Amino acid sequence: MKSVSSFPELMEIQNDYEKSESVFRQAQRLIDNEMCTMVSESNGGFDFIVEDRFDDFRVVIGIAGKRLSLSCSCGSRLDCCPHAAAALILLRRKFDEERRRVSVSTFIQS
Ligand SMILES: [Zn+2]
Q: In Å, how far are 1, 5, 22, 96, 105 from 102, measured between CA atoms?
């Protein structure tokens, strides 16, 4: 899967999208409390529902080449709100798990 290999590493996600330490911490908290769930996956697009204290928000992550597009229904003016940040981290973990499942042959090649 092409999208998997081009998906940024966690470090890049932090550097490029989750520029604020507090956003990153909030995102981690949302994931630790299992409040971030992937609901669907389509061609280069991922839909999440993120529960927050007061409401549920819908996050959509689109993958276009090296660049990700993020949108969240909370209407935050941040480039990356904690909900989108949580979805990004969750997606990164999912790809890490997929990569671990990749056969031994590809492992030797790299
Ligand atoms: Zn949000």
A: 11, 12, 34, 10, 8
Ligand 1 center–CA 75 separation, angstroms: 6
Name residue 1's amino acid. Answer: M
Check if the beta carbon of residue 61 is closer than 8 Å to that of residue 70: yes
Q: Which residues lie near ion ligand 1 (Cβ < 5 Å)?
A: 57, 72, 74, 76, 81, 83
pLDDT tens digits, 20-46: 899 999 999 999 999 999 999 987 799
For residue 71, report the distance from its CA to the centre of ligand 1, in Å.
Answer: 8
CA 79 to ligand 1 center in whole angstroms: 10
Q: What is the domain partition of the chain in residue ranges?
A: 2-109
Distance CA 8, CA 26 (A): 20
